[in-house]
Amino acid sequence: MAQSYKIIDSVRKATEILEYLAHQKEPVSGSDVARAVNLPKGTVMCHLVTLEETKLIRRVGDSFELGMGAAILWARKKALLEGVRDRAERDLVALVEGR
Description:
By secondary structure, the protein is mainly α. The protein has four helices and three strands.
């Protein structure tokens, strides 16, 4: 029997906030974020300061934008994928050359 796991609401909310910020060209206020994700401002602000602490977002004055932490996570993943691709290319060359 497959195990069923419960969805953690705070993670879902944080993801919605990150996705909203990722689509903004300029920093946005906590109130703007709260309206966009349909959550109380207090809840959103708690998420924002936590995400700021983890560097996933950054504060610009009284507003917020996506931070470099998100870019660093993607850069690490990209580097890992490039390593996999490079190994696969070497393996293919070896197969073609009959090594």
